[in-house]
């Protein structure tokens, strides 16, 4: 029983020119696969071997000695989640209930976008920018390295990977341009709206994005 690298929910060239085939081949087939392979090797023969991915993340987050397992488990979850946050023909402004929630909690879509871009560009070094549900309110956050909102009791709705491997081939050092393009051209608002509907049901919803899938 091992964790399995989920397939991308779109073709490798489907997000070009905003995110190139080459970037996705490296990011998914090398980086994400690397986290899955290292996670499988690290949990083999341990008490974590039979656990669901979210359980491993929550358990290892409490123990600094388990940092290696935590990093690879959380990066597996974060990447599986990130792929689902992207869509060909995505981006722009959300509609319906999600748009109303964003307006209620941030003032306007533009205020949300500004906060998200600030979080993404302000994250020093590697990490992630997030839109989360925290205690019933939408919030924008950033996390360093592999850190993931579930360990803070937050329900992730949207993320943008701001590790250099996510954008360097297409944007070199221009992280702000990458984040701007993700918001304008790639965000899968349908997925984000589904996450908002599901709220705290992380364990079940991640079955859907196949992160917890075992072969
Ligand atoms: Fe990444």
Q: What's the number of structural domains?
A: 2
Class inferred from helices and paired strands: mainly alpha
Please list the strands of the largest sheet in the order they lie side by side: 2-1-3
Number of strands: 3
Give the ligands present.
fe (ii) ion
**Proportion of beta-strand residues:** 5-15%
Largest sheet: 3 strands, antiparallel
What is the level 1 CATH name of the largest domain? Alpha Beta
What is the distance, rounded to the nearest whole angstrom, between the alpha carbons of the first and last residues?
6 Å
As a whole number of angstroms, the C-alpha radius of gyration is 16 Å
| Inertia-based shape | globular
How confident overall, as mean pLDDT?
93
């Amino acid at each position: 029983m091992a964790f399995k690298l989920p397939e991308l929910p779109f073709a490798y060239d489907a997000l070009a020119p905003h995110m190139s085939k080459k970037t996705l081949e490296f990011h998914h087939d090398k980086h994400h696969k690397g986290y899955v392979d290292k996670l499988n090797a690290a949990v083999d023969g341990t008490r974590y071997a039979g656990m669901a991915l979210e359980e491993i993340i929550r358990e290892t987050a409490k123990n600094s000695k388990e940092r290696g397992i935590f990093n690879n488990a959380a990066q597996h979850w974060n990447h599986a989640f990130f792929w689902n946050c992207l869509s060909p023909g995505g981006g722009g402004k959300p509609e319906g209930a999600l748009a109303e929630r964003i307006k209620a909690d941030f003032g306007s879509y533009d205020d949300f976008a500004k906060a998200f871009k600030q979080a993404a560009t302000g994250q020093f070094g590697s990490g992630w920018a997030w839109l989360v549900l925290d205690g019933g309110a939408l919030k924008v956050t950033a996390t360093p390295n592999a850190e993931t909102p579930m360990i803070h009791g937050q329900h992730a709705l949207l993320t943008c990977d701001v590790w250099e491997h996510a954008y360097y081939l297409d944007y070199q050092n221009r992280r702000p341009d990458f984040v701007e393009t993700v918001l304008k051209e790639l965000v899968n608002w349908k997925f984000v709206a589904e996450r908002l509907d599901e709220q705290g049901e992380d364990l079940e919803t991640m079955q859907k994005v196949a992160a917890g899938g075992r072969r």
